[in-house]
Design a protein that fits this description.
Layout (H helix, E strand, L loop, with lengths): L8 H27 L4 H23 L7 H25 L4 H8 L2 H11 L7 H17 L2 H6 L6 H27 L5 H22 L12 H24 L5 H4 L6 H13 L5 H21 L1
């Protein structure tokens, strides 16, 4: 089998940066949709359904095998459920707090993955890696505006607290999903793994919506703007996700993946330009510390 020729690095970086901006814009569109009464589960269903069709076409075109062992099916099912929870949590966070803040907290998943891998018998993080993690946590304290909130006499904002908890849960669940992918499903073709994961996300979202456990989960947008935003989030996510898998053999992901960490920075800029969500100067500084630290960790690994 002939190996795909990698893109020149500057082209690969531009493609990955564009995809990161598309993923960020998907969350901006999601916030607009939620502000116009779009159900969270409806957004998950539409996003997973359209992306699933694109990946299924890719799998059929490549004639990739769907034969899995019983053990692999169990881990694949777990992965699908984890990504369902992660998707629900990050959209729940985006609906409550500024998009950039939610994305910055979710981007703590590499730290959680390193600690989880260590706890499950993997290598202990080096002193340098631990120092970078400490720096990232300092940045997170600034991002969350903890000093101001500690000296404030106002009661904690319930929506803010819930949004942060949803973001932290999304980060932790995604770290576990990454561990499962790396240690139990690494031999599978990425497009097959992602297609099966999206089937489970779609199915779980549909069952949850039909159960009525989440009031308004399948609610339709109440205005034209909401419908447009719903369409945009589906197109932005589906196009970015599909492009990533189609181009992945030529993107040299091992070397260039840290570029994707610009997603929260793009979310910060788009949130300000489109939604008027402005973070304070210390929060912006903290955001760049968090992103810079994560990029440092990624480059150390590779």
């Amino acid at each position: 089998m002939q190996t795909a020729t990698p893109f020149p690095r500057h082209i690969a970086v531009v493609i990955l940066a564009t995809l990161a901006c598309s993923f960020a814009a998907n969350h901006i569109a999601a916030r607009i949709a939620f502000d116009h009464d779009t159900g969270l589960l409806l957004a998950m269903l539409c996003r997973a359904g359209v992306t699933l069709l694109a990946l299924a076409a890719l799998v059929l075109w490549r004639r990739e095998s769907l034969r899995l062992s019983a053990a692999t099916w169990r881990w694949q099912t777990l992965l699908g459920l984890l990504i369902t929870i992660q998707s629900f949590c990050i959209y729940s966070a985006v609906a409550r707090i500024p998009v950039a803040l939610a994305l910055l907290v979710v981007n703590l998943s590499p730290i959680m993955l390193a600690l989880l891998s260590w706890a499950l018998g993997g290598p202990r993080p080096t002193s340098q890696a631990l120092a970078i993690m400490g720096l990232i946590l300092i940045g997170l304290v600034l991002v969350l505006d903890v000093p101001t909130r500690l000296i404030s006499s106002d009661a904690p904002d319930g929506q803010w607290v819930a949004g942060i908890l949803f973001s932290l849960t999304a980060a932790a669940v995604f770290a576990l999903a990454l561990w499962v992918t790396e240690h139990k499903l690494s031999s599978m073709a990425g497009s097959v793994r992602s297609m099966l994961t999206l089937i489970l996300v779609f199915s779980a979202s549909a069952l949850l919506g039909a159960s009525g456990l989440i009031p308004g989960g399948l609610g339709l947008p109440s205005a034209t703007v909401g419908w447009i935003a719903l369409g945009c989030l589906v197109l932005l996510y589906g196009a970015a996700f599909s492009t990533l898998f189609i181009c992945m053999p030529r993107l040299n992901i091992a070397r260039n993946a840290p570029v994707m960490n610009m997603e929260p920075v793009a979310g910060m800029l788009l949130g300000w330009l489109i939604l008027g969500q402005m973070l304070g100067p210390l929060q912006i500084l903290g955001g760049f510390i968090v992103v810079g630290g994560i990029v440092l960790l990624a480059y150390r690994k590779h």
